[in-house]
Each structure stands twice: as C-alpha cells, then as structure tokens.
Amino acid sequence: MSSESSRGGLEDLLAPARELETLIVVLRDFDSPGGPESDPQSDLAEVLGEFIIADLVVVEKRLEKLEERSRKPNFDDDDRREQALLGEISGHLESEKPVSSFPLDDIQRKAISGFGFLSLKPYLAVINSGEGGGNAVEAELSSVAGTEVLSCKALNEFEILQLSPEDQAIFLEEYGIQSFSREPIISAAYQTAGRISFFTAGEKEVRAWTIRDGTVAVDAAGEIHTDIARGFIRAEVVSYEDYIENDGIKGAKEKGKFRLEGKTYAMADGDIVEFRFSV
Fold it and tell me: Do domains 1-193 and 195-277 have the same CATH topology?
C-alpha cells in the first residue's frame, strides 16, 4: 500500500471522530496473546501522532483546492486569509506539533472549526487493564499526557454488568473494583468537553439538558424553547445537593433552598430549575 493510500485509509477511519467535541483515548495495559508488550505511554504518543498526520492530510487537500481556486477570478480575500492560515498550520503539523499548540485568535479558531481537527480537540485517556491489575500508573501518564487519565477493567466490568445486582456486588469485591468506571469516565468526558447538565423536574417528567459551562440562565432557557428565553422572567433554582438532602423539590422549598435568579445567572452543574416566563 502506498503512503498516500495509507493516509487516505487513516482519514476514513478517523473521520467520524471529527464530529465529536472531545475524544476518549483508550490504552491497553494488559498482555495480548501474540501481541507486543503493553506500553500505554508509547501507544498514546502513537495515537496523538496519528491525529497530527490525519489533520495534515485534511489541510493538504484543502490547500490544493485553494491553489486551484486562486487561478480563478472568484478567489477573494477570505480565500487568501484561509490559504495563509492553513499554510502556517501545515508547517506546524509537519513539525509534528498538534493544532492545539498553534496560536489561534477567536476569529481564526472559528474559521477552522469546520475542519474538526483531531489534534485540536480536548481528550482524556483511559487505561484498560483488561482482566488483570495492569502496571500503568495514572499520575505518571497524566503528567506526560497533559490531560486527565482514568483506569478501568473493561472486560471484568462488562461481564459483571451481565449479572443480577446481587451478584454484581460479590464480583466487584472479588475483582477489587470499587465501582463501575463508566460514571467517572462520562463525568470526565463532560468536563473535558466543557459541558454541564441542568435538570427540569415536573410531575410527569424529569429531563436533563446539556449546555456549555458558563451558560447563563436565559440562554439555558432557550435550550428548552426559544419562547422561554424570549419571555424570561426568572429562574427558580435549587442545587443538586440541596435537592437530594431535602428529598426533592417540595422539601427544598420548605427549607428555603430554592433561589430566585435572573437572566445573567451562570448555571451550575446539576442545577434543578423551573423557568418563569411570559409570552
């Protein structure tokens, strides 16, 4: 296989990841029959290198199209700016550096957002120790990776999840697993992506809504319906901790834990909210 076709195959394999906001890189820390010895740190470096190569392929393809377009009369200033920026990014990638380390202002970041550069995306690493204990140390790998590192025993956990709740507790203890890893991994993925959730709780339905961290109340209301944002009056808010501690909304209201917040209130992760509005 030629290097060009190899690169094309890599791009096809990684293309779906370009649509994601954050990535989870799973690293093997167990022996595989007939395979090389596990080395999570080396594997992580290889994966991040593949991201750089895949991004370089995308940039080169776009620069080729811009070069062709530059010979036509409809080649405008926006095209020239894009060509110049991508030319600089291409050199950066060729130096085996990720797009995340390339200095970008807000306008430039928005201009390249459509490419879904893999080496620009935030990521977290998960060490899968298989059935065994594994030898990788999370703290050591985290210092090298520059991101959060979690661990799991994927095969053990998968098998335990097929059991009844009573049997699950027995086997979790036997394998030395304090709790399933899926919850902390999901939580870490949300944090890495800069996302939080708030809840609306009615008599018939409780629903979670995902928003960006730092979203204010009126914009959060708009995630539910634009009419709520347009006619926003106030948000009645109780924290998740107060909700649990006081046995729900009724108890939280009786204890005075509900707060009245305005449009500019920055939503907190786990907030339970009732929006008041008029249209």
Answer: no
